[in-house]
Write a structure and sequence with these properties.
Layout lengths: L2 H14 L4 H15 L5 E8 L2 E8 L10 E3 L6 H8 L3 E2 L14 E6 L8 E7 L5 H32 L9 H16 L6 E9 L1 H26 L6 E6 L2 E7 L3 H16 L18 E9 L6 H17 L5 E4 L5 E3 L2 E3 L11
Parallel strand pairs: 10-11
Antiparallel strand pairs: 1-2, 1-6, 2-3, 4-5, 5-6, 7-9, 7-10, 8-9, 11-12, 12-13
Helix pairs in contact: 1-2, 1-4, 2-4
């Protein structure tokens, strides 16, 4: 074993933990091949729903194993046997077989992700490998276990920060980051258009006061389902905070965005709320939405301006009687349905 290659591999695996799970996998694969040049196949398995799933397959002989699932109780396979033992499993021991018929040498080593789930690395060669090389592979896997767990925890944290826990929609921070990327891409495409809807729930405070916080949470989740249904695969939908939501329609002309906003308004206004109320509570609280529409580049050229303009249009819907869609006309005046008024800023009144 080349000690320099081993130390460099450990160092690079540790650094990869600060980037991504995929980077740790790639660096572990590279490190194994540096200390054991005979190795031509590396597989990594993560536990999912009680099975071990091949999440990375490197090497021409094993590329088609990506996505393969095996049960943890299938002890004839090295990955399952390694997990059952809690340490390495080598081909031929206990009747365990390799994944490929040409595997002469193969070893599986748990990566010990602990509470994050189980993971195993599998390395194979079409020829024999000496004991010193085997120990080097096992030691590398032991070092990689901590880095792999750290990378998984980091990505899980980022996912939690990216999505709202109650509704599953994008968080305000994630929305702003993705909106900025969408507008940046649009700058380099002359015909690209981006439309933003600012959606504020009408009468939400009254609903919350009448049906309690549990009823309010149920309503927010129901609204989130309506908004998701209005979006395509390239669109974005986020909870902006409280009972406010935002939708970003990708590659959508302003006129089309206003039409889609009207469809959202109707869907919310006709939402069946029966199941969201308790049987003993009064059924006299109705829910609708005030929506503002702004478009890039017609109304704004930066993400913050677009949010401000959509917010301003939403407040105009509030002032115009709620349950409405407002947008900026060609002359810059705010339009609510067929009614036009002079441009105005956010109201000083409190709307609920």
């Amino acid at each position: 074993m080349n000690l320099v290659h081993f130390v460099e591999g450990v160092r690079r695996i540790g650094l990869a933990a600060t980037r991504s799970v995929g980077d740790v996998r790639a660096e572990l694969d590279a490190a194994i091949r540096r200390v054991a040049p005979a190795i031509d196949s590396v597989l990594i398995f993560d536990e999912e729903d009680g099975d071990l799933v091949c999440v990375a397959a490197a090497g021409a002989r094993v590329m088609y194993f990506a996505g393969v699932r095996i049960t943890r109780g299938e002890l004839r396979t090295l990955p399952a046997q390694a997990l059952a033992r809690g340490h390495r499993a080598v081909i031929g021991e206990g009747g365990a077989r390799g994944f490929h018929p040409a595997d002469v040498f193969a070893v599986a080593v748990p990566l010990l992700r602990e509470a994050g789930g189980a993971s195993v690395v599998y390395a194979a060669a079409p020829c024999a490998v000496d004991d010193a090389t085997l120990e080097a592979i096992v030691t590398l896997a032991d070092h990689a276990g901590f880095a792999y767990a750290l990378a998984h925890e980091r990505e899980a944290y980022l996912r939690r920060a990216e999505y709202d826990a109650l509704t599953g929609l994008l968080s305000p921070r994630a929305l702003r980051e993705r909106l900025a990327l969408a507008i940046e891409r649009a700058r380099f495409a002359p015909l690209a258009r981006v439309a933003l809807l600012f959606v504020d729930t009408d009468h939400f405070k009254r609903w919350n006061d009448t049906y309690g916080h549990a009823g309010g949470d149920a309503l927010l989740r129901a609204l989130a389902r309506v908004l998701r249904a209005a979006c395509g695969s390239e669109d974005l939908v986020a909870r902006n905070g409280g009972d406010e939501f935002c939708i970003v329609f990708a590659d959508t002309e302003k006129s089309r965005a206003v039409e889609r906003a009207e469809a959202v308004r109707r869907a919310i206004a006709t939402l069946d709320l029966t199941a969201l109320r308790s049987d003993a509570a009064p059924a006299d609280v109705t829910i609708s939405a005030s929506i503002g529409v702004a478009a890039y580049p017609a109304d704004a050229v930066t993400p913050s301006e677009l949010l401000e303009r959509a917010d301003e249009a939403m407040y105009h819907s509030k002032r115009s009687g709620r349950n409405a869609v407002s947008y900026f006309g060609l002359d810059g005046a705010l339009v609510c349905g067929t009614r036009t008024s002079v441009p105005c800023g956010p109201s000083t009144f409190s709307f609920t």
